[in-house]
Please model this.
Amino acid sequence: MLIAFASAKGSPGVTTTVTALGSVWRQNVIVADCDPAGGDLALRYRTPRGLPLDPELGLVSVAAAARRGLSPEEVLEHVQTAQGGLDILAGVTTPSQVTGIGPVWSALAGALRDVPGTDVLVDCGRITPGTPVLPLLMAADAVVLFARPTLEAYAHLRERLRWLAGQLRTGEVGGVPLGVAVVTEPGDTAATRDLDRLLQHSQLSVAVLGRVADDPKAADALAGRRSRRLDRSMLFRSARELAGAVYGLTRFGPTNMTIADQ
Model:
């Protein structure tokens, strides 16, 4: 299963949230860093022995393999395990490397979707019309966008969802389901309700999945910048709730529409 995560504008914390989701995901999982602007995971994490992750082993190497023909099983040869046990497909180190991947995005998307016994959570970064990762979004079992609860963020999100819904044929048979989640203060109970009303008014068939706690201390710990227990943090607690909603959005879950009014 392949689930793609992105933002419409700004930096609402896509990488942090996808990494948190990968850390609490109940199935075998790979977090794939496919942000065209350049990956962060290889910079943030180290191997279990404390060594830097290899920036050349990941998206760049698996894309090179895809030019010769790539089976889903071969994807695992390009994955690295970080401290804490999270399996990571490291991203590009410079945006220019994305240009060379262009011809094989579709083949790569198919291989990531079908890795045996493993779900793949893909960080696609900020997406705009013309994004090179559109084949990943179109091959996904679900696409989830993140936003912060501001007027301007919601406005950009709405327009990006309109464009994506057309590209992904969301709401049609065989289309890719779309979901959104709000990155906000732990006590903000109105954000998802307000966003749901906005999307319904805009006649967008998009699931509002819930909230992600804006928890800077836990985010720093997750990125290895400080030492802190994470399992009871607001970030991980919200990630566990969101993980269930995201899974439910896919064709594998119990429903393809989960509206959160928390």
Remarks:
- The chain has a mean pLDDT of 91.
